[in-house]
Amino acid sequence: MGMITNVTSFGRSGLSDWLLQRTTAIIMAAYVVFVSFYLLTNPDLQYDQWLALNSHICMKVLNVLTVLSIAIHAWIGLWAVLTDYVTVRLLGPKATPLRIIFQLGMILVTLVYVIWALDIVWGI
């Protein structure tokens, strides 16, 4: 168990992960509620209106917070799954290198996703 903690936890604790999961879930829920409300109250939404909404600095900040929340939420969830199921007990000695490869892949995909989203949000 010490290997999992040392190699792949990056110094986080269960409490910090729990708080991050709850905080990011609240941000994502607020985003969904706001966008749903906006779409329901603007049934004949035109591109110009959508562009105006997403060009506003508050909406850009909310978009960025939501994208970062999704990335953090996904990272913690997938880290938990990998550390629970990609273990030496289940897969033998190849588990730790395999888990590290999966985690590096997750970091790469998440980083590309966040950079792409930032480019979209701030490119509007």
CATH class: Mainly Alpha
Q: What portion of the residues fall into strands of 2 or more residues? A: under 5%
Largest sheet: none
Number of helical runs?
6
Number of domains: 1
What share of residues is helical? Answer: over 70%
CATH fold field value: 3 helical TM bundles of succinate and fumarate reductases
Stretches where pLDDT is under 50 for at least 5 consecutive residues are none
- Mean pLDDT rating: 90
User: Which structural class fits the helix and strand makeup?
Assistant: mainly alpha
Q: Under the CATH scheme, which architecture would be assigned?
A: Up-down Bundle
Radius of gyration equals 19 Å
Q: How many runs of DSSP E, i.e. beta strands?
A: 0
> CATH superfamily assignment?
Fumarate reductase/succinate dehydrogenase, transmembrane subunit
**N-to-C SSE string, H for helix and E for strand:** HHHHHH
Described by the principal axes of the CA atoms, the overall outline is elongated
- Distance from first to last alpha carbon: 47 Å
Features:
124 residues, 6 helices, 3 helical TM bundles of succinate and fumarate reductases, mainly alpha
